[in-house]
Specification:
The complex is a heterodimer of chains A (104) and B (229). The termini of chain A are far apart. With 104 residues, chain A is mostly helical. Helix content of chain A is 74%, strand content 0%. In chain A, α4 runs antiparallel to α5. With 229 residues, chain B is mainly α. Chain B contains 13 helices and no strands. In chain B, α1 (3-44) packs parallel to α3 (59-70), α2 (47-56) packs antiparallel against α9 (141-159) and α3 packs antiparallel against α4 (75-86). Classes of the chains: A mainly alpha (104), B mainly alpha (229). At the A-B interface, α1, α2, α3, α4 and α5 of A face α1, α2, α3, α4 and α5 of B.
Chain lengths: 104, 229
């Protein structure tokens, strides 16, 4: 079997196991208050990190890649902060990124 | 109507609301999936990218694995990259778990419906999640992701370089909007977001892809600060 198919099969199984682990091991009971206080702020931590990594990181990792995405995501930040709505803000990000790239 | 019947109806309504909420994200996902298909086709051929999207259904991990294969990094490195990028679903699943009902199998299946968007959109504050809403919000993204990959594979010549269209800015912009509109409450959540962003920023140049996001989830431990006072 080629390495492409091995990669796909192993990653499929690994993804299912990772996604199922928390619900199977922790689910069905109420966590103590300190654990819930941590759980409550996992979302802001992860979302902020995803924004930073997907805006500034190189896809293959271990490097910054500073390009037109920065302008696009910054435009979305301005749009969402003036309550332009989610879809217009996201569309603006792609348009600004494409435009800056075309001009560069 | 019995209490249980009305509860069932309520869950179905939350599921339907989730589906409606998930449609705009699925449109963005379709465009990103097209760019995945375009990038993956030269590396993996016509069939493998579509099968990968259908089985894995995990955007960032798929991009990372294909980027490693394209660079000649080999299968083991591609698997490592994909796993690192998906490890964030570990803490996300732990956060989701207390909000799930039913037996182990049903909870494990609900866990499969976690994608970044639906998980964040289903967050109701204080650590509680609306599980039926999350499953509904994920649903439109699945056909969009698989179909978009197929479009990218077969229409790559027409599309050209996806970066030209700015599609790589869609996901970070989406996550930024979710953060600002849903999670950036003053106080601890805002501090945690800032620390998470700083941790990720500091690690980007030094670690494999995926590690900065997992490490940033440790910023959630700051939640203890409030609970202890």
């Amino acid at each position: 079997m080629s390495e492409v198919w091995v990669t796909i099969i192993v990653l499929t199984v690994a993804t299912a196991v990772i996604k199922g682990a928390g619900p199977v091991l922790v689910g069905g009971r109420t966590l103590p208050p300190p654990a819930m206080a941590v759980v409550a702020v996992v979302a802001p931590a992860l979302l902020a990190a995803l924004v930073v990594v997907q805006t500034l990181g190189a896809p293959e990792g271990a490097a910054f890649e500073l390009d037109a995405r920065i302008a696009g995501v910054a435009a979305a930040a301005v749009a969402v902060s003036i309550r332009a709505g989610l879809l217009p803000a996201v569309a603006l990000a792609a348009i600004v990124t494409a435009t800056v790239r075309a001009l560069a | 109507m019995s209490l249980q019947g009305s509860n069932q109806e309520h869950r179905r309504e939350r599921y339907r609301t989730g589906v409606r909420t998930g449609i705009p994200y699925a449109v963005a996902g379709l465009l990103v999936a097209i760019s995945f298909g375009v990038l993956a086709q030269p590396v993996m051929g016509n069939v493998a990218p579509i099968v990968m999207s259908a089985l894995m259904f995990a955007g960032a991990a798929q991009f990372a694995a294909v980027a490693v294969l394209a660079a000649g990094g080999g299968g083991a490195a591609a698997i490592a990259a994909g796993i690192l990028l998906n490890l964030r679903f570990g803490p996300m699943g732990v956060a989701l778990a207390p909000s799930l009902r039913g037996g182990r199998l049903s909870r494990a299946l609900t866990g499969q419906a976690m994608i970044d968007f639906s998980w964040a959109a289903a967050s109701r504050g204080g650590g509680s999640f609306d599980a039926p809403f999350m499953v509904g919000a994920t649903l439109p993204s699945y056909p969009a992701w698989v179909g978009g990959t197929a479009i990218g594979v077969f229409a790559g010549d027409l599309i050209g370089d996806p970066a030209r269209l700015g599609l790589d800015a869609l996901f970070p912009a989406f996550f930024l909007c979710l953060l600002v509109e849903g999670e950036l409450r003053p106080g601890i959540p805002a501090v945690v977001a800032a620390v998470g962003a700083a941790v990720a920023l500091a690690l980007i140049p030094f670690t494999p892809a995926g590690v900065p996001v997992i490490a940033a989830s440790a910023a959630a431990l700051l939640g203890l600060w409030r609970s202890e006072r």
